[in-house]
Amino acid sequence: MALALGAAASAAMAQSPLTFKFGYGLKEDSNQGRAARVFAERVSQLSGGRLKMEPVGAAKLGSDDAMQKAVSAGTQEMMVGSTATLVSVVKEMALWDAPFLFNGVDEADFLLDGAIGQQIMGKLPDKGFVGLVYWENGFRNLTNSKRPINSLGDLSGLKLRVMQNDTFIKAFRTLGADARPMAFAELDAALRSGAMDGQENPFNTILSSKFYESQKYLSITNHVYSPWIVLASKKWWDKLPKADQEIIQQAATQARDFERRDTREEADRALKNLVEKGMQVNVPTFGELSRMRNRMDHIYARDIGEKVGLPLLLQVQNELIGYRDRKRK
Ligand code: TK8
């Protein structure tokens, strides 16, 4: 009898899938949400249903910052969020905050997926995380409810929500904005109430988060390329059998490829949709963008250089120069 029960129990255990959560901040109807669902599907397929990932969107598990704490502590298994928010824990992530670093998404893929991206991910385990892949958030653009940002002066005094990240705070204060850090999860309410005049995010997010309902002006600055990073809790990960780690890593890579394709396809359409929704779009002149860029130059050396180390920053420049040379040939 006991034997039979034991066998039944272990058969049930073999069948009941290992369930874990994957948190993200945007709405379910967003590029993040679509990719999260693909990720979950792939985990299920590759494990024959043995592993069950539950995507939980709309910051229902908490803001990026709160999820990071939970993942590092081991009370939440997985998440995807901005590398920018992670800098307070893993300072080398500041590399991805460098304004105007990449000329295109191909350059971002090259660095993120190459040795440098891996090297930076290598700093995560000490802080309780395992980094699996980088997803594309995208090039960031400014929106606000007051005026088009055509020149530096237009940013003056604007209450601009920025991510909880030193470089972003400093960069936008340098440009004259009244930059204030705030969790993304609180942003929509702050824009609607007027507590904040503006924010900056890629077209996809401006659309999926419905920021067009509170923001009249969209100024295309492409001032920084933002990655998202897929993180697992090291405490949890280390207890998984190697085969399961491999399945999750493989599914993450497949979901990343889907996510980048989907995000890129959506970006142009999103801009058109935002115009249809009534946003007024402008592009600052090359001269004005150059002025912004020059103002931010010292951020490289003082802020990012200090966090990631100047040798790595030079290595990045070197790799990018090599990449651009090869592309021209
Ligand atoms: C979503 C955020 C968002 C980011 C931000 O949770 O905070 O502005 O761009 O994508 O991670």
Protein described:
With 329 residues, the protein is an alpha/beta fold. The protein has a single domain (16-328), classed as Bacterial extracellular solute-binding protein, family 7 (D-Maltodextrin-Binding Protein, domain 2, 3-Layer(aba) Sandwich), CATH 3.40.190.170. Helix content is 50%, strand content 18%. The protein is built from 13 helices and eleven strands. The strands form three sheets. A five-stranded mixed beta sheet has the order 2-1-3-10-4. Strands 8-5-9-11 form a four-stranded mixed beta sheet. It has a two-stranded parallel sheet with strand order 6-7. α7 links the parallel β6 and β7. α12 (286-308) packs across α13. The radius of gyration is 21 Å and the shape is globular. The protein binds D-xylonic acid (TK8). D-xylonic acid (TK8) is lined by residues 25-26, 64, 81-82, 137, 163, 184, 201, 205, 226. D-xylonic acid binds next to β3.
